[in-house]
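Human: I would love a firmer grasp of how sequence relates to backbone shape in proteins. Take your time, and here it is.
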Amino acid sequence: DCPTRWGTKQKMIARILEQGPAIRRVLDDRRTQHLIPTWQDMEVMESVNAALKKVADFTDALSSERAVTASSLKPVLQLVTEDLLLPAEEDTQLTRNLKEKMSAVLMEKYSAPSTQQLLAKTAFVDPRYKDIDISDEVKDELMEEMMNVPEEQRDDGDGKGASAPNPPKKPNLADLLGEKKEKTSTPTPKRIRVDTEIRRYLQEEALDSHADPLVWWRDNSVRFPLLSKVARKYMTICATSIPSERVFSAAGNVVTSFRASLKPDKVNMLVFLAKNMKAGM
């Protein structure tokens, strides 16, 4: 059992219920008969399993290291609390109580205004969930962050170590017309660019739920230069602590009693290599 992944409890309980007859036969001995689960034990496990099994798959999905997870939290919470954890007619009283308790705990864990704003921002910048209902306050904060994105500096070639200048060439018609256009055109105010990006982003068709939002942003970052930088900030957030725990587990495999004298920089490199080799990079 893993305390941070309660989905493991559901899997163990489901396995016991599945193998109930085999467990009874194995324990059907005078010395071990007291270990056979009673009918009350089986009823309790059936009630617990009924409450957990509908949401158990989400624990594995939100613990992924290779997929964006934080942006899925808001829609997942809505689905779990407004649908999957609602009492059903066939539920026992224990199952109903467990569902109500789980729903209350989830609502309390994410009830802080700052957490709600963070969940709304991460969902909005995910093209799969961009149509989710968010407040104007959250949208204004995102637009303010877009306003604070530093402008990209163009390389004018005056830096040190620059290559030798190319020999002058005779300007053609395109060069002459381009110079005139640059002189007559004025840069678009940043506020207008921000409003335009948000409007065009909302007009885009929502991405399929099975598609990779990171690939979408890679392909569309040129069209949304400001919003893509804000999205990069929020889409790297992990929904759970599981990826961090996996890193510590990898470090525990590297630093053992036989390798306790490794220097910190060596440990960092070994952990980095171990994680990347596992990911197939």
